[in-house]
Structure formats: C-alpha cells, structure tokens
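Batch 3, record 17
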Amino acid sequence: MTDLERKPDRAPVPSGWTYAPAPEARDIVRLEERYGLFVGGEWIEPRGGETYPTIDPSTEEPLAQVAQAGPEDVALAVDAARVAFENGWSALWPSARAKYLFRVARLLQERAREFAVLESLNGGKPIRESRDVDLPLAAAHFFYYAGWADKLEYAFPNRRPRPVGVAGQIIPWNFPLLMLAWKIAPALAAGNTVVLKPAETTPLSALLFCDVLRQAELPPGVVNIVTGDGRTGAELVKHPGVDKVAFTGSTEVGKAIQRELAGTGKKLTLELGGKAANVIFDDAALDQAVEGIVNGIYFNQGHVCCAGSRLLVQESIYEPLIAKLKRRLATLRVGDPLDKNTDVGAINSRQQLDKITELVASGQEEGAEIYQPPCRLPERGYFFAPTVFTNVAQSYRIAQEEIFGPVLSVLTFRTPEEAVEKANNTAYGLSAGVWTEKGSRILWMAQRLHAGVVWANTYNRFDPASPFGGYKESGFGREGGLHGLEPYLDFSGKPDTFGG
Amino acid sequence: MTRLPIRKTYKLFLGGAFPRSESGRTYEAQGQNVARASRKDVRDAVRAARSAQPKWAGMTAYNRGQVLYRVAEMMEARSADLAALASGRDEVERAIDRMLWYAGWADKLAQVIGTANPVAGPYFNFTVPEPTGVVAIVASDEPPLDALVARLAPVLVGGNATVVLASERRPLPAIELAEALATSDVPGGVVNILTGLREALAPVLAAHMDVNAIDVGGADGVAPELERLAAENVKRVVRSSGDDQSPWEIAAFLELKTVWHPIGR
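Prediction for the assembled complex:
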C-alpha cells in the first residue's frame, strides 16, 4: 500500500498528445438507395409498401430505405423456406450442404473489409472491432458448422438426427453479421431452411449477405431475410409454418416469445440479457485484469449481452485497482467508428442512448459515485462517455438491470464465498469473469458461478467451437460447438427401447 | 379374534418429513383420505427443495449413483405394497428397473454430454453439465408409479431437487414411493411430493419464481396454461412422455457451463 502511495507505478498519461485521424475508407461499401426483402432467392417489395430509413448512428445520417415486412411478406418468406426445405435442401447430400457453407465462409473472408466497414457504418462499432472480431468470427462460424453438416450421425450417435424444418430466427443489433452467422450456420448445417429477421436498426449487413448467398449459388429459399421492427419479429414467431424459433435479444421480449409459443410444441432457444460479474481477486495480475475489465465492459460500447457490467473487487486491492482503471479509462478514444484509433464508437440508436442516460441518472440519484474520464464527444451522433460507478449497493438499479452501454458498476467483497454470493445475486446467468493466479480457485469459482460461460483471466472471448448461452433468465439452449447443433435437430425418430 | 390392522394415513412428503397439509384439508382418492396441499404447502416445498439442492448437487457423482441405487433397493423391498396401490407387479418392476438404469448414469453423464472444445487461443475450454436447480414435476395419472419414476429419476440423477405434484386420481403410489425415498439416504428436501388438486396447485408451481424448470408431460389439458406461466422467469419446459427413457431426458434438466481456463507458463 505505502509503496503505491509513494510512487505511482507508471508515469501519468501525457495530456498533450493528439492523434491524427486514421479513417478507414468507406467507398468500399456501395449501398442501394432502397432495399426490398430477400425471399425465395429474389428481392421483393413489401406488400404493404412500408419502408423506413436506416441510419449511421455516429452521424444520424440516413444510409438507405429498408422494407418493413408485414404479415403477408413473412408468410411468403416462410412458404419459400418450406418449399426449399421440401424440394431439395433437406434431401441434399450432406456433403453438398457442407460445401455451400464452406463457400459462404470463404466469401465472407474475401469480402471481409467491405462487411467490416458496413458493420461500423450501420451499427456504430469501432472498425477495429468489426475488422478484428466480428468478421473473422463470422467466417469461422461458417467454417466450423460447414464441417459438421456431413458428420451429424457422429455428433449424435443412436439419436437419428433429422432437420427440424423451417427455422425462424431473430437477431439483435449489437453484432449484426456475427449473430446472423451464429443463427444461420448451424441451422443450415443441420439441414433446415431459414427465415431471418435482422434487428430494426442494423439490417444492412444481413442484406449485403444476400449477395454472398448469390455468389455462393445457394439454392433459392434456403435463406430468406425479412427486415422490419418488432412487429415483423412477432409475425415470424407466430407463423404456424415455423418449426423452430431462435431469438437473441432482451429478456423482456424473450419472455413474450416463450409465452406466445406456449402449448404449440415449437422448439425454442433464447439467448437473452445478462448482468455479468467480473470478479477480481487480490492475487490477480492487476494490469492484465484492468485490460480485461475494460474489454469486458467497453468492448462494443458495452452493447454486449455477456458484458462484465458488475465489477467485484476484493477489498484489499480496491484502491490501487480503481486508480489503475481510471487511468486506463482516460486513454480510451471515443469517436468516429470508422477511425482505426477509436476504442469506443457510437451508441447504436437514440432509443438506446436514452435508456443508458436514464439508468446512469438513476445510479447518481440512488447514491453511487460517478466517474467519467475527460473526453470530448462528437457533436453529432449518439455517444456516451465510458462510465464507472463506485460506491454501488447491490440493490441499485445499475447493479441489477442490464444497461447495455459503457457503464460499469463496482462492488467489493472480502472472501471467495462472498464473491460467489454477490455474483449470483441476479436473475440473469449468462457469463462471469474470474481473475486470479490460482488455478484451483478458478475452478472452485467456476463450479459455483451460475453462468453459462466463465472466463478466467480473460473476458469477452468467443469461438465457434465453444458453446455459449445462459442460465436462469438469460435464456436456454446453446449456440456454438457441438451443443449448438442440437436446437436445430429433431430426434423423435429414435426408437425408445431401453430398460423394461 | 383376529388382530385389527393399523391403517396408514397418507400425508405429504415435504422437507424429508411427512406433514399433513398446513390447510388441514384432505380429499378422497383411491378410497383413502389424502392430504390436499395448499398454495402455502407448494411454497414451503419449493423452499425445502431450494435449500436441499446444493448438498445433493455437491455430492460426488459416484455417491449420488449409490443413493439412487439404494432407492431401487427400497422400492424392491416395498414392491408388494407398491403393486397393490399401482397397476400391479409389472408396473412396479418396470419402475424399479428404470430407477436402477438412471442410477448408473450419475457418474457417466458428464462424459457423454460434456465436451472439450478446441478454441483458437491459449485456453483449455471445456463444457460440463450442471443441474438446473429446482424442478417441478406434474405427474401423469397413468401408470401412477412408473410414469412418476420415469420423470423423477432423470431429474434426480442430474443433481436437481424437485417438487412433485402427484396424480390427483391415483396419488397413493407416489406417497408409498416417498417412504422408499425417505429411507434411501436421499437428503431431506431433495424430493418433495404433494398430493391435492392439480388445477389449483400446478399453476402455482409453474408461476413460482424460484423454480428453474417444469415438466408438464403429465399436465394434459393444463399444459399450455402452465407453459405460459413458466415464461415469467424463463423456466425450462419439458414435455416428455412417461415412456421416454434416455440420457437426453436427464439432459433436459441440465445446464451447460463452458469454462475458459488460461494456459501459460
């Protein structure tokens, strides 16, 4: 302690440095003025004629007009998927299904830069992240599941795996293309056809993906993309021709979907919200932990369902850790998503910015202490400074509710038991982080944390081979890995001849 | 004079004890006065299950298998009584063999359901099954013993605690089974068996915020309503039939946990 007080372990951050702008060229992306719906391998106009503008959240400028799919359009898409399922796709040689998926993976790699720029334009995420995380992972996901397409019998021995039929998939706006990959790759590998609805605010990468499907010569109707707001999603969930629903999004909407499907017997997987604890023990490598905390909550502006939004710090290192964290925060660059130096980009929408602002205000009102590093936010667009709350009680809204923004709530603990107790004190159970140099403690904690994913000495790491999904109100079902195939397969053909 | 036999009073099985309903009510089924559980009994049973669950899950898998094997032994010892209350010897033998079959899964599950995942990075990444927590079972009426065992055994072997709503029409085999469980080293509170009116009690279980999963396979016409209520805390809903028997029946009540453990010098 006293050592730390006597001399800081690092020189203070120079304040006079300026960075030259390093923008990624956006002309690689050619946008249409207006997009229809991708149904049966063709672009169709929405029957209701309704469209809405999709914007660049960092400038609020419109990028294109996008179709609002109504009930008739959704029905057409489901029919197209059904026709494709019955007429060939499910009966195709599994190895041919695999080859189509390998093609898609390759095409995504070849066009990675174009997709990365578009993802940052339409979603507001830093180009560094869309380039280094979203795109490589999306391609890897298609590669991974491509290889499963002709090996399902080995993945599920004695279970006679068969495709389910038509999958209705609804994805969020935080990782638009990556979530598309998480949904489409296992569904197609298992022999299903798909109707996918991208998020209302981030439809463009899914629409560009249709061009990848064209290049891959995927049979028409195997993948259909319908754009629109929540009404479109509701139509898709309700449609009797949909055999399986997969949803990633808020817990509130997930519950409504589960209610809607009650009694229908449709298969359902839900990947919902989170309020993950990131637990730092006093023996952790502190500098490494600080990087992990920053990556845990400021990655993608905190628009991450598994974000490490509750920091649990062991009391004995609370002061030095928070000091280091604040120093690190001052170096984060907030601004233009297309600038290669940007760490924190734009908040995805006005609505989300309002939600973050409201929850941060509640934190201040309830008595937490706020810290934001000095940083100039762009005048236009939706931005929010990286924020840390200390002096947070477990009952505060900022410790209970998912903020889905760059806002960290710090709590403390003394013993490992207390850390577990506090970490599990939430209705969610998606993920958790543990930082310690002691391997046995990592596994001890991992056994006790009620979370589907536990990261030790790292955070926000994803891999197509690694199953992802929640406990409790964070949803059910897994995406990724062998387990990610299961929701897209039907096993009812299996004879039940055990016991007796 | 022949000796006058002592009759049995059929009560609830709650927290390892056999209390009457706190409401003091009974109803008549199979020619007996049977405890008619109240909403409060349901809540008490959930609390008992929640507090017993960590101990059950914390036992070694080997030990849990041994305890369930012991349940099969105790059922065997009571097979005559069970047969008289259920639908005869065949049903009882099927139920006992089923319990035995599931007991053997305790220490094999993780090897069949878990995986080691080859991620692109310096991490040992593995996925293991864990119990979902507290499971509600709405038992089928027929066959009254075997259909219950078929749902109860997979829930237990995975390390869950449970609150069972026994068949309303034929509840006695369930209470007889409770007596086998009570003498089998299953920790008190891991299995709680309630008798009473299904339409009144099942919705309370389905809506309970501290229940993680519900098996509606025996709920017949009430099932859609139960599923709707279950959404309130995103319960796992299982709709298996009383005949289904496989490790996937166990998996339906398991969560999968994936751990990224660092590798380094």
